[in-house]
Each structure stands twice: as C-alpha cells, then as structure tokens.
Amino acid sequence: MAIRTASKAKNSSGITLAVALAAGVRQFACQARSFSEGWSREMPKTSFITTAIDYTNSPPHVGHAYEKVLADVIARYHRLKGEKVFFLTGVDQHGQKVQQSAAKAGVPPAEFVKEITQKFVDLWKKLDVQYDGWAATTDPLHENCVQGILQRLFDEGQIYKDKQAGYYSVRQEQFLTDKERGPDGQFGPEWGQVEFREEENYYFRLSQHKDWLLSYIGNRKDAVIPDFRQMELRNAVERLSGDLCISRPKSRLDWGIELPFDKNFVTYVWFDALTNYISFAGYDPSLSALNSVKERGSNGALRSQPSTFLDKWPALQIIGKDILIPAHGIYWLIMLHAIGFPDDQMPQLLVHGWWNLGGAKMSKSAGNIIDPFALIEKYGADALRYHLMGDITTGQDADFSEERLVEFYNADLANNLGNLLSRTLNMALKYSNGKLIGASSQALYKEDYRGEPGTGPLGNVIEWQVKRYEEGMEAYKPRRGLAELMVMGAQCNLFIDVHEPWKVARDPSRTKDVNEIIYALAESMRVIAILISPLLPRAAHRIFDQLNWKMELTGKEERFSLVDAEWGTLPDGHVVGKPVQLFPRIETN
Ligand code: MSP
C-alpha cells in the first residue's frame, strides 16, 4: 500500500493541501528572499556569532532575551549542521548610565554591575542560551586589549586631543549641536539643563575613513542584512562629518577604561564596548603590524594574530536596529579598518527589529518593560522561546502580546506537535506493542511519489518540508523555520485523519499498512525533533526520549545532527516509549 496524502490533498479550490496548510497554519510572513549569501562566503573553520553586549544599568527585559535567543538559535542551527561554533555574548559594564544607577542605588559601580550581570547570566541559563564565550567588559583581558588598540591608534596619529566648546546637556551628558535644536531654535526639555562648556577630549579620526567605508559598503552587497538596513547605513555614511569623541575626563566619569596615554581620561562607550568582539576572541593588539598602507587589504595586519583568533574571525554580528547607525555600521567598521583589518575580514551585521508594546517602545522610564523571568515562571522557557522566535520576522518589529504567546503555544505546540506525538506513540503501543515495523517500506513511499512538491507520500512531504525549513534557517529566519515545522506537524495529523489507522487495524489483512502508518509517523516525529532542536532544545530531547531514540545505536556522540534528518533512519524493530504530555496546554482561566 502506498500511504499518501496526495489523493485527498486537493481542496475544492484545487490548491494542494501542503500549500494551503503552509498559508493557513499561521500567518507567517515567509519572505522568499534568502539571506544566506553571506554565510556561503568562504567560511572560517569556526562559525563565530556575536550579540550586542547588554548594558548593566538595569535588569534584562524581553528585548534583550529576544536577541540572545535569536543568536542562540542561529548558533545551534550551525552546530546542527556539524560546524564548530563560537557564540559570544556578554555585558557592557562601564559608562555613565551604570555609574549613575550605582550612585542612585548607593553602591560602588563594581558591586552594582556584579549584581545586574548575575541577572543576565541567570536568564540565559533559564532560557537555554548556550554561549561559548562570555564578554564582560571589566575583565582585565578586555581592558588590556582596549588599551592596546587605543595606544596603537594614538601612536599612529589616528587619535588626537582637542578642545570642544559648545552647548552641553547636563542631563544627557553630551555636547549638543544645532541638529538638536527644535523649530523654535531652542533645545527641548528632554535635554534638561543646557549650559555653555569648554572641555578637552580625545578624538578618533573617523571622517578620514569615510571614503573607504563608502567603497566597502558599495562593494559588499551583504555587509548588512536585511538590505534595507544597508541602504540606511549608506545614506548615513554619506552624511558623515566630523570625528568621534572617545574620552571623558575622569572628573566627570571614572567608571571606565583609562586611556593608556593620559591618566586623566577614560575611554567613553564605544571603543570599550565594540572591542569586546575581538578581545574575547583572542585578538592581540600588540601582535599586528602597524597600520601601514602596504599592509591594508593583504591580510598582513592580521597574519600575526593567534590562530585561535584567525580560526574564528570574521563574525556574524547580531545587533538591534538602534545600534547599527552609527555604532556598528560606522564606528566599528572604521575602527577595524583603522587597525588594519582588510575588507574581506569585515564582520557581517545582522540587524534585528524590536519588540514593542502596544506600538510603543519598551523602556524603563515609560514603565512598560516586560520581565522575561515572570513569563518563564508562568509559561516555561519553551513557551517564551517559541513566542520570541515564532511571532517576529527577523529584521522587522513586532508587538509583544501575552495573549498571542498563549494562543500560539496552545495551537502550534500543544494541539499540533504535542498531540501528534501522543497520537503516534499511543497507536504504536496499541497496535504493535510499541515496535516499529515499516522501515523497509520507505522505497515504496519514494517510488510512488508523483505529486507536486510538498504532497504525496508522507516521507516525501517531510523531505520537502526539511528543505523549506533549511531555507528559512539559512536566511536567519527562525519564524519561517518554525512555520515549516508546524506544516509538517499538520501534515502528519492530517495523514492520520485521512488514513484512519484505527479502522485499518480492524482488518487483519492490513497489518502491514498499520505498521507503515505508525512507522511513517514515528519517523516524522524523529525528524521534527532534530529540526526543532535549535529552537526548542528541551522539547527536542523530550521527543527523542519518548521515541526512545537514544542515538547510541547510531554510534554518534551528537544527539541532534542535520544529516540525520534523512527519512528512513529509525530501524525496524525499534521500540518507542510511552507518551508523556509534551506541551501541556496553558489554561488561562
Ligand atoms: N551596550 C550597548 C551595546 C553595545 S554592543 C558592543 C547596548 N545595550 S542595550 O542593553 O541597550 O541593548 C542591547 C541589545 O538589546 C541591542 O542590540 C538592542 O537593540 C537590543 N534591544 C533592546 N531593546 C530591545 C527591544 N525592545 N526589542 C529587541 N531588541 C532590543 O545598546
């Protein structure tokens, strides 16, 4: 018997069932365009993935959680493909805001950041964010690296001292320009007290590299993804003028890294924070040749770096939309260029959108922060990960909604996948004592395949969906990956409804057919577990455990691997376990 969904797969409008399901399971914005080009550039041995490092002036909120889970999913997906991965995340511990928050709390900044840092560490543990490197900017290793880079740039004349005179906002701790004036020519109330000041500081020759940056962005189409962000960056670079103030006098800010060439100053914000991406990857500023024109573009300035660094760099850098311009798109790329990184060693910037609340930006001052700890407590880590990955398209903004979290968890995880697993295992136990006998029928599934892509025997449907899942994940779109998994689950549930195994089982002449049905479902669940593992690692383990699929039979150390998502891997004679509710429904009242 050829078990197929194709025969009943046409609905009245003639659309194949798989396509209808893909559209209907959930309104996923599955953009066809692929972001994978960047990934297919010649890859270093280790895939290096970074996130922004979070300010430690206040505890993490759901926006921080989103970015780290996104990076974790991408990192896990690359591990699933068998790549070596170095996933770096961490905390930005210096600066004005931290110094102020610590003063308000009446504790020294070092003590204050320790406490907040712990909250981030705790959250990543609860959310299964599995990083390989932890970037905390008070680490002496990092401080030395920042100082080494500053010294080099100073020695090369890239950093100079200058006096700035102008209007200064005491509240925002910054000099203001005419751009900050309102239509009435005055500085608005958001700036608080504004006074005229004169201050000496150190400056980095940013504008000297403007033409280089324009040409780099012009030559590399996927320097920033999505591409509308690259366009924004290009426009911003075209308007770039002036240099970057990189210091604060200690009289004003002392919670920072001291300038190696002037003890009266600390470096301010970006030179400290951005350098984390290389300092924690093993970059050694004392090893690279000075930034001579001859070295540029030839990789010469990097050649002397430790192999641990060269093995990782360049990175895929995941950041929020607010810190592309100017921080990462301008300051960071120019900093790297100035210390001799050639164009083909520039990182790629993946820019995500923001979770808002009721259309408004989440902020501590507006009092509309969503606490991820509370959500995990209430719904569990899987539910939060699912919502953060499933309800936002990478690059776009979305509105955070607890109602949607519950609604989609129940519909997709509890009703679709959870139900499928329990139906499958219950039938296996009932009709064949849990024993699978149907692997040999896989040729039959394939041979019989005549339908359109995504239709036909279940094995073909799954194979097709695996490809679509991969497309989504390669494009850094976990939402699309999840959507394809939900289509798989829905197809399998439909397969059960169409073939009504409970009726087939009543006919003693059709034992082989029942076995084939059960095998196909258990095998689909195994594939789903592999593919869902980057997104919901705990659930993936639970599925494997219930399938009783320990992996030692295959002799592999890694439990989940993309190459194992091939149809027909479960051997005949394998005995599945008993069902335990995979995703208990969330009851809201
Ligand atoms: N410390 C700097 C980054 C330095 S990177 C060298 C910083 N920290 S932050 O804590 O304000 O933000 C950290 C990351 O969280 C940023 O990428 C930011 O875009 C992201 N998000 C902050 N709020 C967010 C949402 N509401 N939604 C999604 N991401 C959000 O900037």
Key words describing this protein structure:
single chain, 589 residues, alpha/beta, seven-stranded parallel beta sheet, four-stranded antiparallel beta sheet, 44% helix, binds 5'-O-[(L-methionyl)-sulphamoyl]adenosine
Report on this structure.
With 589 residues, this protein is α/β, with parallel strands linked by helices. It has helices spanning 17-24, 62-80, 96-105, 109-126, 140-155, 210-219, 227-238, 270-274, 276-279, 300-303, 307-312, 324-338, 372-379, 381-390, 402-432, 442-447, 458-474, 478-499, 501-504, 511-532, 537-547; strands at 46-51, 54-55, 84-92, 133-136, 159-169, 174-175, 194-204, 224-225, 244-245, 247-249, 258-259, 262-267, 315-320, 348-352, 355-357, 360-361, 398-399. Strands 1, 2, 3, 4, 8, 13 and 14 form a seven-stranded parallel beta sheet that branches. Strands 6-5-7-9 form a four-stranded antiparallel beta sheet. Strands 10-12-11 form a three-stranded antiparallel beta sheet. Helix 12 links the parallel strand 13 (315-320) and strand 14. The longest helix is centred in the last third of the chain and has 31 residues, at 402-432. The protein starts with 16 loop residues before the first helix and ends in a 42-residue tail after the last helix. Bound molecules: 5'-O-[(L-methionyl)-sulphamoyl]adenosine (MSP). 5'-O-[(L-methionyl)-sulphamoyl]adenosine binds at residues 52-55, 63-64, 66-67, 92, 273-274, 276, 319-320, 322-323, 354-355, 362. 5'-O-[(L-methionyl)-sulphamoyl]adenosine is lined by residues 52-55, 63-64, 66-67, 92, 273-274, 276, 319-320, 322-323, 354-355, 362.
